[in-house]
Amino acid sequence: MKTRPLSQTVRVKMPIDLKGFDSLEMEHWTRQHGLPAYRGRQIHSWLFRRLAGSFEDMSDLPKSLRTLLACEATLNHLHLIDSVSSEDGTRKYLFKLVDGMTIEAVLIPERDHWTLCVSSQVGCAMGCRFCLTGRQGFKRNLSPAEIVDQVIQVRRSMETPERLTNIVLMGMGEPLANYENVVKALRILVSETGMNFSHRKITLSTSGLVPEMIRLGNDITVNLAVSLNASDNETRSNLMPINRRYPIEKLLDACRVFPLPNRRMITFEYILIDDINDGTEDARHLSKLLAGLRAKVNLIPLNPHQGSPFSPPPMDRILAFQETLIDHHLTAIIRKSKGQDILAACGQLSGKHPAEGA
Ligand code: SAH
Ligand code: SF4
Fold first, then answer.
1. 205 lines ligand 1 (CB under 6 A)
2. Residue 75: its pLDDT value, please?
3. pLDDT above 90: percentage of residues in the chain
4. Which residues contact 69 (CB under 8 A, 6 or more apart)?
5. Exposed / middle / buried, residue 66 (Cβ in 10 Å: 0-12, 13-18, 19+)
6. Above 70 in pLDDT, residue 124?
């Protein structure tokens, strides 16, 4: 292969990702440009609080600084290409990234607030057999700015953005497989000079990457949800290949040492699949596994999608499963997925425009 002499190498200056800057990086950038530190705080406030759509909007910055920003930085990492609303009020957003790839985020109405389900990767490498995102395979990691920008863009589209108070990392991708970028995005989401979300209102869901779970507990405080989905290793390995690397015992050991703030619990997600993991015996086994853990269980009847060999159990089996857990003193909630009619429910995200099909 011929290499160019250094003098001929074309240097393309990459625009900086202001939305992926934490307060220290912002401070560093302002200092580098000979600006006072408060200018950095002003820029962050425009980005994360006032949800500026352009540098021109940043009206209390001097014109020269707005011009500098326009030359050096990019503002919009995501381009909203479509949003659809479900009968139950759930809204699905389809975003195009700068390289043309697409991801989805889902805004879910709760009684007194909204929850946003954000993506952490394009596709997913974990290959869980029941999951549409998993079926696509892995395309790439999202940058911190691309993760944070999902929240900003959705807030910009809302009439009452302040009512979006809760974030769940349960969209496309395995957040702990994109560890550095996800933790950075989380820091920006919870920082006072960032988006100022409460630690208590952010939940990260993982398929069970044990070393990264332990790291996460030491690096930042957020709620943890673990996708368990089976009560024995054979069934779990069949459904979730990651279980071959980190079997149930190792996973639960990591949960036991996960640092939990007072009165908080780990949520265990358990998809109920007809004839696979929905027997009373499975429920009993699950209760035993979780005994002694500060745990609650979210039971999610499988959301079927085209081409999937699985289906959800009938309602009486779902209720019987829940009852067994409750009899064993576990908190178990049946989570009826919202947004099914617009393919926005758990495990249904494909990042494809409806016209392209799933
Ligand atoms: N990768 C992470 C987070 C994204 S998946 C994880 O696996 O936890 C978010 C949730 O959707 C997980 O709990 C997963 O088990 C669930 N899920 C995936 N496919 C599903 C389906 N077809 N029906 C119901 N839930 C599903
Ligand atoms: Fe990936 Fe989670 Fe889907 Fe498994 S369930 S393939 S980890 S997104």
1. yes
2. 85
3. 85
4. 18, 43, 55, 58, 61
5. middle
6. yes
Pocket around ligand 2: residues whose beta carbon is below 6 Å from it?
124, 126-128, 131, 133-134, 173-174, 207, 227
**Mean pLDDT, rounded, of the chain:** 92
pLDDT tops 70 at residue 358? no
Amino acid identity, residue 103? I
Q: Which residue has the higher pLDDT, 298 or 349?
A: 298
Selected catalytic residue, list 124, 128, 131, 346: 346
More confident residue, 357 or 354: 354
How many beta carbons lie within 10 A of that of residue 255, not counting itself?
A: 22
Please tell me if the CB atom of residue 102 comes closer than 6 angstroms to any atom of ligand 1.
Answer: no
- Ligand 1, atom 4, lies closest to the CA of 170
Asked if residue 196 has pLDDT above 80, the reply is yes
243 lines ligand 1 (CB under 6 A): no
Q: How far is the CA of 52 from the centre of ligand 1 (A)?
A: 33
At residue 2, does pLDDT exceed 90?
no
Query: Of 123, 128, 174, which Cα lies nearest the Cα of 277?
Result: 128
Distance (Å, whole) CA 24 – CA 30: 10
Token pair, residue 288, equals: 């035993």
Sign for the CA dihedral angle at 169, 170, 173, 176 comes to positive
For a ligand 2 pocket test, name from 126, 132, 210, 270 the mutation site with the most ligand atoms within 8 angstroms of its C-beta: 126
346: annotated active-site residue: yes
> Does ligand 1 have an atom closer than 6 angstroms to the CB of 119?
no
Q: How many CB atoms lie within 10 A of CB 217?
A: 17
Mean of the pLDDT values across residues 228-257?
98
Question: With 60 as the cut, is the pLDDT of residue 8 above it?
Answer: no
Q: Measure 135 CA to ligand 2 centroid, in angstroms.
A: 9
Instruction: Tell me the average pLDDT across 68-82.
Output: 90
For residue 112 the two structure tokens come to 């007194």
- DSSP bridge partners of 227: 269
Average pLDDT over residues 276-285: 98
Please confirm, yes or no, whether 146 is among the known catalytic residues: no
